[in-house]
Batch of 4 targets.
Target 1
Amino acid sequence: MLSVEMFPGLALGPQRIGDCFYRDQEAPAHLPLFPPTCDVSAAGLPPRLLAPPPVPSEPTSKAQKDEVKMELENSSLWKQFSSVGTEMIITKKGRRMFPGLRLKLSGLNPSLRYILLLDIVPLDNSRYRFQGGGWQAVGSAEARLPDRVFIHPDSPATGAHWQSRTISFHYAKLTNNTLDTQGHIILHSLHRYQPRVHVIEARDVLRWGGGQHSFVFPETQFITVTAYQNNKITELKINSNPFAKGFREDGMNSKKQRDARQKRKIAVLTETLDIENCDPCDSTELLQQPSDTNTDLQALALASLPPLPDPSCGFRPEEASYPDTQPLDLGQAFMASQMTDISITMANGMQDTAGSEVANNMIERSDSMAEPAFTSSFPAPPPSSSSFPSAPLPQPSSSFSSLPSSDTSDPQPSIPPIDYPSLLSSSPSLSAAATTPSLQQTSFTFPTPPPSNSSSPQPLLPSSSSPSSNPYHAIPETISPQTDASFAAPSSTCHSGQMSAQSLLIQPNQTLQQEPGGNGSPSDQSSAAFIYPNVLPPNPDSAQPLNQPAAPTLPCSLPAHGASTSFTFPSVPPHAQNLSFPNVSPSPALHLQNLSHQAQPLTAAFPPSSFAHPSSSLPHPSFQPSACLASSFQQSAGTHPQNLPNPSSSSSTPSYPPVEIGAIPQFNPAPPYRPEMVLHHPSLLPQLDSSLPSSTPPPSLYPAFPSYPLRLCQDPHSSLSIPFRHLYRQHQHGHPHPQGSYLDMSTRAVF
DNA sequence: TCAGCTCACACTTTTGAATAGC
DNA sequence: AGCTATTCAAAAGTGTGAGCTG
């Protein structure tokens, strides 16, 4: 029986380790779901786990599962942002996402209970910078941070519940605080991310019985920032977010108002100072300097008075008796403010115009979205920006560079907007505002490529210009997984008990398409393959076929962590060899029953969530022990991590041919763009189990998204309330889970 | 020097308790 | 007494801009 083991500590943050335990129903004692070390993984597992229940060759298919559909209710809004290049503010205290994820679920069994999870995974291995009006990859990504999952506060709830309302994840918060103890989702600034929503069926309170459906809405990808870089995004946010209403043109916190306030403030100060300084005219004032109180009162009194344009006393700053004070500066500031005001006014006028244009653009875009087309302005990582070889880009320049941005005035060379149009439009069932991911059981097909730009009012996709050279087709063939050799599939010794999110999504027996040329691969799909906007393989040469074992394989048996905080990986590139892991002392609040496992070599080597992952240089998945294992799982299952469970050809969304999971733009340079993807995961546990015994080196397959273990733990508890009690974040005011809970998935060890 | 981050600020919406009215 | 509607204040969510940091 599986249950989610959520430690109150999600609040604990990254420090939590080894918190994934297996609980045998008959044996209440906590058993590590997976041995801390790859080596002992199999040994430490109950036989039952080692011999997982046979997985049906065909995904457990309950018809209903295949029918599960999720729509992004505010898709149009997302597309507006995406067309500009969505930015999400992250702060230390945590910032909500805007737009938020508003979803509609259907196809669930009304009587079954489901858990909804939100996680956010890196889209690539690059760090970005806003230059020249666009986002450009400027280097390798930062070490991967602890993965956390936001659990919808309503979870677990019945299918009827989920389907009866709009599901919102607006309570989820993003932070850049790596030591965050609030359980917020930790992200790096200036990195690209893709939110994912997982629907996990909880057959009953006791077990994760059914399967898992994962949904990805490409238009929801974003770049994290600590301050907005693109003015258009700022405008969009202000115009769209009610909380930012005050910053609108007519708001009290608009630039005009703020300038006016500042002007008044300065005027008041100036007057005050002027008065004080003017007082030199009155010798008595010099002798008797007004007390602070008097000054304040004076200031207050003056505040209500109109600014004194010109001190009649003839006071000259340079002659002021208080040279150190800055009457002059203030005066200048005042004048400057006046001038600034004027310029601002003018600027505002211009800005208004510009704003109007933008707004119009937005409207147009919005309208155009009505015709399900939108562009994503995210740039593709520069070829050499990443230290890791990435899959070769078919025709990066042709595919994206030329993309005519809706706003020509704002060159975004690096960020060719992406056109998703055909994908969305092609689906009859899709409304302009809602996209329905197709659900495929075993294979993914690539979405139909956008029609030639001619059909699009505003051809945003440059690439689309030449259908013949359709980048989408090229993807499968020319783009190989961006897996770095160093991230090669874990050696045979690597058997991780860690369940990666990716692995969760993969069905053991699922036949995953190999990206290059597999049946049902994008290439196979007539122009179905849609290259995800941003994923441009930096280094084509380095690209390797998915199946091809990555060059340097990283044995799971890494040097014992011990007290040392750095690891050297001989097989990995020098730049990636030295990994520093902050010694994070476990929070006192952290209750890790199996903490002892940490002592074990592997565990030591891979403290699950306490350490940063040098993902930047290394594709996440592979270096993570869990990832290793995940790969092995997948391999054993004959699946590529990237090849998430493919939707059964479901038909749920005809317009969206099933997309191979590998298509998810992570390290796959040219993963076909998928508007949405549904992954069906019939049986989680079996899958994991199956992988354990596998001794054969996993192929160098990597999940499109970095894989990380979900902290889904088996729990014998007979009552949902018990196991899930831990899922909920403890709130200060005694609200159990008013705003959802977070699940730390960082079992992923060090990497 | 500069890009990026943090923080305080003013404004807004949201939320929940208190109060009034029926 | 119980319920509903309204009011109010506190909390929380916004972007901004100055200042700090590396």
Note: DSSP finds 20 helices and 23 strands in chain A.
Target 2
Amino acid sequence: MRLSSSDVAQQDEEGENKCLNSELWHACAGPLIYLPPVGSHVVYFPQGHSEQIAASSKKEIDAHNPNYPSLSPQLTCQLQNVTMHVDLETDEVYARMTLQPLTLPVQKDVCLLSSELGTPSKQPANYFCKILTASDTSTHGGFSVPRRAAERVFPSLDYSQQPPYQELIARDLHDNEWKFRHTFRGQPKRHLLTTGWSVFVSAKRLVAGDSIIFIWNEKNQLLVGIRRANRLQTVMPTSVFSSDSMHIGLLASAAHAAATNGRFTVFYNPRASPSEFVVPLTKYVKAVYHTRVSVGMRFRMLFETEESNVRRFMGTITGVSDLDPVRWPNSHWRTVKVGWDESIAKERQPRVSFWEIEPLTTFPMYPSVSGFPLRLKRPWPSGLPSFPAFKDDGMSIN
Amino acid sequence: MRLSSSDVAQQDEEGENKCLNSELWHACAGPLIYLPPVGSHVVYFPQGHSEQIAASSKKEIDAHNPNYPSLSPQLTCQLQNVTMHVDLETDEVYARMTLQPLTLPVQKDVCLLSSELGTPSKQPANYFCKILTASDTSTHGGFSVPRRAAERVFPSLDYSQQPPYQELIARDLHDNEWKFRHTFRGQPKRHLLTTGWSVFVSAKRLVAGDSIIFIWNEKNQLLVGIRRANRLQTVMPTSVFSSDSMHIGLLASAAHAAATNGRFTVFYNPRASPSEFVVPLTKYVKAVYHTRVSVGMRFRMLFETEESNVRRFMGTITGVSDLDPVRWPNSHWRTVKVGWDESIAKERQPRVSFWEIEPLTTFPMYPSVSGFPLRLKRPWPSGLPSFPAFKDDGMSIN
DNA sequence: GTGTCGGCCGTCTGCCGACAA
DNA sequence: TTGTCGGCAGACGGCCGACAC
């Protein structure tokens, strides 16, 4: 039995902690987002964290940013707490994690005994996600519900009425109630949300391209969430705090905790940027130390589709090297350079991390001596995993 | 001739620096806000900076926040750059300052030769500021212009028409144009802004209690600015960055710059909180080292009124002590405990800094031996002013 | 001198099926 | 199956002077 982070879904609102619907949070976060359970061991990547801050503040990481030589590029931590949150203004979902750096050496074999490998969380059974059209968000009319979605997720209408209609009451992540008149009319017949819809659109400031999510849960409650297409609204107000200071802040925060054996807190916004900078230790160890990866190798990787589904994209590993050899040497963050099969996928990130991909030819457990093996040192030099992967230059740096 | 910071008014917009109207910026910032000139020497208070972050993020400074023993509570710096900015979303004004910590001892006598004592910037001559009423912001009608304000600031109407009217075009800090129909009608006659007003109100999201500013400048241009009453909108989106990390970030940023003789950047939002944490060195030196202050002494202090005017409030010094003896010993930030004469003023801060007040009995230059003199050490122990003022317990800590 | 209201028009919101992709 | 449109009715925006404080 494991302690699930889903049980501690909470949010800050006026300083008060209220319970927040975990199912809805995950639906808004997307099918690939996974929050490690409380108490589990994770690897924290300050480099990835920095990426998220940079993406959120739309600023490049300044070259003159100080590097913290004392701060390891990957920090093994125990996840002491995870809470789910939602921004009051924008409805962005995010998680708050409290991390306790570990100083004792971690046995990788012990880690592998855990069944926790960071599989993505299951999405709700009865739900749908629709990208809003111009007609949906226009003041001229209501919301056109896709037929199969309406019949699966909404309570069935009394079709003896002409036209049939019902009042739907849906709750959002703030536990606000939204009322919608649901009807089935027109020629040809279609499901529509009319009265109440425009209030929702204007209150949430939805525009065409944004998405709406409806969930019918096990308690027969209707939940509603949104997902914005436009990531630009994630812009930080720089009116009080410089981007530089933020970068320094996260580094100093982690370094201070590691040095003093204290805890530190990070915020993870899964939709602000694809930077999963807190990774389950077992997932990390398996990918980095127990999976053979070499240049030219074919792999699959999961991506989220526009309709909130999961799709596999194929690619080839074209190189393995440090993303930032100067500031973050010996990091495992995005060390894998890849090429994607589909030209549409070219816009996807040209660099991924070992644990994000699924090699098509896997040799489980320890690497062999043939091919392009990873060199494995043991025991680890410290409690922090810092074993360098196979690099382009063929050198083992550590 | 001094280099004024007004000459380098700029803003970041999509990464591009554009010129920003300094006169309008100062009108929005308020009559008491003063930006030291580029090249001048200032004192930076990380403690005050921290206060601003705390106020903006509506969070207390956590007790377990690390203190940076290596970071002086007041840092003498050269102001290398000042730029004025305005938030794209909220129209909040703020300044970005680049500070270069000084390691050489600063001669206080030299400083006093400078005429720069941080006097508040002059407000524009032809301007008015009105707090919006419920009728002003309601969709039911337009904006009622105070008569004397309209006659002083707006071009005079052609009263031969019935009713007289004209088209006003005003520019905001983003250099956007706003058109207003200005007319003079009703019984009794009054000045009104009708067509165009509601667009402005909804675009700026103005509510009753917010203020609007109109300026008629020397180039015969009409400028318009806003000031929000509700400080709550300054809330930081915590969806990507923890308040703790921000506090650590600003401390680490300053400490790193001081240690490596590098520069650091701060953002100063004059309306987010009354925390002027970058003070002209001469103003600081004069107040702390050349003005006799003692318990029981009467003083005056400037405050901003609701209508953007300046008013003096009277008070009595009730004590002098460290605001935070644990984390910030020997700081001069808000060391003066005060009582205010008017009960209305009781809500004002119970603690101020030496340079904010104007003692009614001043002995210029060096302190005498009578009364409650400040003890003056010389030379200073370091280049950073850290001389403790007279404390409640009568002990000189340094 | 100015904040709010009732009166009155005009525009826009928002519900409807038609039609086409 | 569903996105967009024309048509239409009612709600609200927005301009006016009347009052009162």
Note: The two ends of chain A are 38 Å apart (CA to CA).
Target 3
Amino acid sequence: ENLFFEPHKRGLMKTPLKESTAANRVLAEIQPDFGPLTTPTKPKEISPGEPWTPTANLKMLISAVSPEIRNRDQKRGLFDNRNGLPEAKDCLHEHLSGDEYEKSQPSRKEKSLGLLCHKFLARYPNYPNPAVNNDICLDEVAEELNVERRRIYDIVNVLESLHMVSRLAKNRYTWHGRHNLNQTLGTLKSVGEENKYAEQIMMIKKKEYEQEFDFSKSYSIEDPLIKANPSQNGHSDMCFVELPGVEFRAAKIRRLYDIANVLSSLDLIKKVHVTEERGRKPAFKWTGPEISPNTSGTYLFSFIHCFWCFICGNVYSFALTDPLPHLLFISSAEASQNSAPFPSKMAQLAAICKMQLEEQSSEPRK
DNA sequence: TCCTCCCGCCATATT
DNA sequence: AATATGGCGGGAGGA
């Protein structure tokens, strides 16, 4: 039985998501040739210093052959965080009081997606040798990290948007690391600019601000701020401003936290706090490399873009709450010192308008 | 109090 | 039908 799946032809890659349909188009455009991706039958090579586990293939075989064992192990593994001896620990737990038992459980923080993502990333080199097999088996990773596969998807989906991995087959991804990260970010940046995400968000902020003076209006599905912004450049597919009302945003926000965790683990963004009139506010600032936009006519839609739009257009940080992903229009210098006082909203709006005008006048119309 | 986001159900997509 | 994928939101830990 061939457990390594049939040789993969890149051109035949299925694109399971509407979203990644576009994403893969760009992927195909910008992805450098990583050499023969069609060598899955080759046994895993372990280059020196690389964190591939030597027993990976064996483990995969075992888990493929025996799902019951895998499940059992996974449950035991809850207490087996790489210390081994699950039996002994289970034994131990039987004699613990409820309170003690609770304490012995991993804390919520220990189970965070950010930490998991760090563990995930630690398994692979930043700049893998494209000549060797860089396959990732999701099942295997989930098992080794003692998490449900669902969590691995959380990570891999973001990495895929950044083209740090690409889908190879069912349950399999190829690890690219940061080889083409800057290029991807450049593409994302230009897409963000093409779609005027930053301007759209400024628009939302403006509406939000205006709404503060009108208490008779409240957010609803028929949120005026959504309707009131027919896209100015002719594109009807401006994903951001077409979002429905506050319920949707609240639901969105949880996803953004997930994504923020992964991006933080990649050191692309960093959590900061800024002070507004109403108090401290959590925000993120871009800590990744400086990116120059690539020219690209292709549209991409993903949360990554929503993030990216915060980054382009001189918007350096944003908060995820209150009540929608909330931009903080502060300079990068301000963002770097958390204690900087936050300018009044009026001042912000003035700055935004000025910025917009400058942009429009300096940049020739496309 | 409210930011954060784990967890896993379950709908949908793929094989 | 079986399995893979991932949308989604309840509700709880933590600051």
Note: Chain A has 15 helices and seven strands.
Target 4
Amino acid sequence: AGDHSLDALSQQGFLEEAAVQQEKEAAGSGGGGVWGMVAAGGKKVRLRKNNYRRRSSSSSGNMVWMDDDEDEEVEEDDDQNGGGGGNERQREHPFIVTEPGEVARGKKNGLDYLFYLYEQCREFLIQVQKIAKERGEKCPTKVTNQVFRYAKAAGANYINKPKMRHYVHCYALHCLDEAASNALRRSFKERRENVGAWRQACYNPVVVVAAAYGWDIDAVFNSHPRLSIWYVPTKLRQLCHVERSNAAAAAASSSVTGGGPDHLSF
Amino acid sequence: AGDHSLDALSQQGFLEEAAVQQEKEAAGSGGGGVWGMVAAGGKKVRLRKNNYRRRSSSSSGNMVWMDDDEDEEVEEDDDQNGGGGGNERQREHPFIVTEPGEVARGKKNGLDYLFYLYEQCREFLIQVQKIAKERGEKCPTKVTNQVFRYAKAAGANYINKPKMRHYVHCYALHCLDEAASNALRRSFKERRENVGAWRQACYNPVVVVAAAYGWDIDAVFNSHPRLSIWYVPTKLRQLCHVERSNAAAAAASSSVTGGGPDHLSF
DNA sequence: AGAAGGACCAGTGGTCCGTA
DNA sequence: AGAAGGACCAGTGGTCCGTA
């Protein structure tokens, strides 16, 4: 393991700590790294109702993290895990709408961190691909379950499939039109909108980009190397389809006005 | 439905009947075509132990087929379904090794017919892709379960996944080096080898082709438009991997003789 | 209330092995 | 015996909904 580049991180000061953590995690692929050790230093790993999970190294990617001298008493100071003697793993802090470069304060994570998780998944995919090629096994081109499993095993416990799939179209906008993405973030932050509202608002700008590709959203994703490794979200696909139909209907009716019914004006 | 081209068929006289059947089948996508009607004219469809299956229009793609006037008494003359009052569907006739252009005689199917089944699957895939695009759904690039289900629903009951997967590497050789494929068929026919032996013998020539691509069998498959829609068989992938390792080891040992251990001679 | 993610489920790729 | 294919199974893509 362990070729997680620092260059992507240096752009945001607040990511540098994460970068160091990430480096250490990657070094101990399979259960290790500082966070894994720290968590193992706490109590026993929780029992799941079901054992779908193959490993359970515990760690958190929260950008707000405990002080160094609390290593052996992980999150004991965290009221999220209240009085109940629980050693349940805490969830990631929720995202809030932040401007580019802004560090989220309090028990929150910012959107630069969200997008950084997509970059991390890409690194994990590249590792999985490398291993598959060495072994002569079939090689994934997308971020699959296998990649999420690998990330977890490498200690990136804060990466999970539902979360990553949930925000793919937001990351798509960030990749495809960073200026528009940044403007949207600033606007939604100013209006004090929550993450859900911002997330919803990310759909349309991506559909607008897709219009230039004849609403072929697969072509849009494939046009961008960092985006092409992600499955197109169902809802985004549906929105593009609806939009294409609308455009086709509009073109047809305008051609009725402007010419014969089978004549395309544009 | 129904754009099954005749051009691919006219090359072999014995395929012309199948071509007509195929046209009719395709016209009645979803349970129809002449074969489906014929089969429905027989007795009741069999009951499966399990109901994995969604539809079961019955038909056979055997190249040796009943006479036209037996339409209402399907396969009653076929001793494969012996005395037992069974209306069990008969299996396809087994393949035998035939030369290019040769019609299999008796209750056998020839290799041109085998390869023709791959072309049919491609046509079904194209149909499925067309429908998916119209609906704005995700569009398969390979022959998937969905395509096999579509083929069955379209009445091509003689197409099934285990069979198609079993002979993919044979079809690959046919696509990649038809001359070599033809020579192998003639040789194995002459030696009166069975289909299993011929099938085994198809692996190595494909690996030889792959050598020119650095043993990247995915690249080999992707290089050919009719082959690229098929998943690379696991065993073929493994053979290429082993062969690459062998070649690397040979190169390393020859470079020890010829130069330093890290020097590549070629 | 808004949000994170464990857990589930329908349908997949892959092929074994009971069948003829 | 050699071969065709129903049927199964482990792990997938997708996302709901019990949880915090």
Note: DSSP finds twelve helices and no strands in chain A.
